[in-house]
């Protein structure tokens, strides 16, 4: 069945099967073989996934795509829903891996949702807009290093896998794409709450060119001796451990 792509759902269908194979090959199911695919579209990844695991749940927002998938993969569990709104705790998997050629218009929101569910996520293999993939994987002292780099790297090891040119999609997107893999690390607790960490990291990067002291001027505890050195730096100079230490010293209840 031919299907016109819907721009508002970020639809760019992958048409290169070799790239689909590489993406699915990178998913390691040794620790857990439950898989959630976000946005299966017409099933280019799904047809490989079903050979790899019997435990797959597909989440697709577009009813036309849902119908195509139901037709092609009769036994596969597809949920017609917005990934951003679905309660992943109720999906029937305790732990799971996530895979997808993610819709670019909601990539940050997908990542924040993965962060919220971080203790159930084992691994993520996903296609993002190249700039987003670079941001997630970049290290301190780079202009690309930002809020999502810090938050994701606090909980995941990040690997930059492959660049995928726009000619591999239909319709051709305006941007280049890249596939990355995030593997959950051993960090369960940071030493501060996730919401405090989020608040501090966001505040630090809200004025990324300024010294952190200025970006954080609405916080109390700025005189804390443990963080004077950090406060004179800029956000992009700090690594994950620095942000954790900063959060603990700024917001820890005494
Ligand atoms: N995986 C397919 C499609 C990629 S395009 C391929 O590689 O060809 C992105 C897909 O995500 C589309 O099928 C689109 O309908 C779906 N999508 C977009 N927003 C979504 C959302 N909020 N929740 C679930 N699926 C979504």
Write a structural description.
With 254 residues, this protein is of the alpha/beta class. The chain has helices at 17-25, 46-52, 63-72, 107-116, 130-137, 147-155, 194-206, 212-215, 228-231, 240-251, and strands at 13-14, 34-38, 55-60, 77-80, 96-101, 121-129, 156-164, 169-170, 177-184. The chain folds into two domains: 7-184, Vaccinia Virus protein VP39 (Rossmann fold), CATH 3.40.50.150; 194-251, rRNA adenine dimethylase, C-terminal domain (Helicase, Ruva Protein, domain 3), CATH 1.10.8. The chain contains ten helices and nine strands. The strands form two sheets. Strands 4-3-2-5-6-9-7 form a seven-stranded mixed β-sheet. A two-stranded antiparallel sheet has the order 1-8. The protein starts with 12 loop residues before the first strand and ends with a helix. The structure holds S-adenosyl-L-homocysteine (SAH). S-adenosyl-L-homocysteine binds at residues 9-14, 38-41, 44-45, 59-62, 65, 82-84, 100-101, 103, 106.
């Amino acid at each position: 069945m031919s299907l016109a792509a819907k721009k508002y759902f970020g639809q760019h269908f992958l048409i290169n099967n070799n790239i689909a194979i590489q993406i699915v090959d990178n998913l390691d199911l040794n620790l857990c073989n439950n898989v959630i695919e976000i946005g299966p579209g017409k099933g280019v990844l799904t047809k490989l996934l079903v050979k790899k695991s019997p435990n797959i749940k597909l989440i697709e927002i577009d009813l036309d795509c849902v119908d195509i998938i139901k037709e092609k993969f009769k036994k596969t569990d597809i949920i017609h829903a917005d990934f951003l709104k679905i309660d992943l705790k109720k999906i029937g998997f305790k732990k799971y891996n996530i895979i997808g050629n993610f819709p670019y218009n909601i990539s940050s929101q997908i990542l924040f949702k993965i962060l919220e569910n971080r203790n159930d996520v084992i691994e993520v293999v996903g296609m993002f807009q190249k700039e987003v993939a670079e941001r997630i994987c970049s290290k301190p002292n780079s202009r690309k290093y930002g809020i999502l780099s810090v938050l994701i790297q606090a909980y995941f090891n990040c690997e930059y896998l492959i660049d995928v040119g726009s000619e591999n999609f239909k319709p051709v997107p305006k941007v280049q794409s890249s596939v990355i893999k995030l593997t959950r690390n051993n960090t369960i607790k940071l030493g501060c709450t996730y919401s405090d960490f989020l608040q501090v990291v966001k505040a630090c990067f809200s004025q990324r060119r300024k010294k952190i002291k200025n970006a954080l001027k609405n916080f109390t505890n700025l005189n804390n001796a443990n963080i004077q050195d950090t406060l004179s730096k800029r956000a992009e100079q700090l690594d994950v451990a620095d942000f954790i230490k900063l959060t603990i010293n700024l917001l820890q209840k005494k």
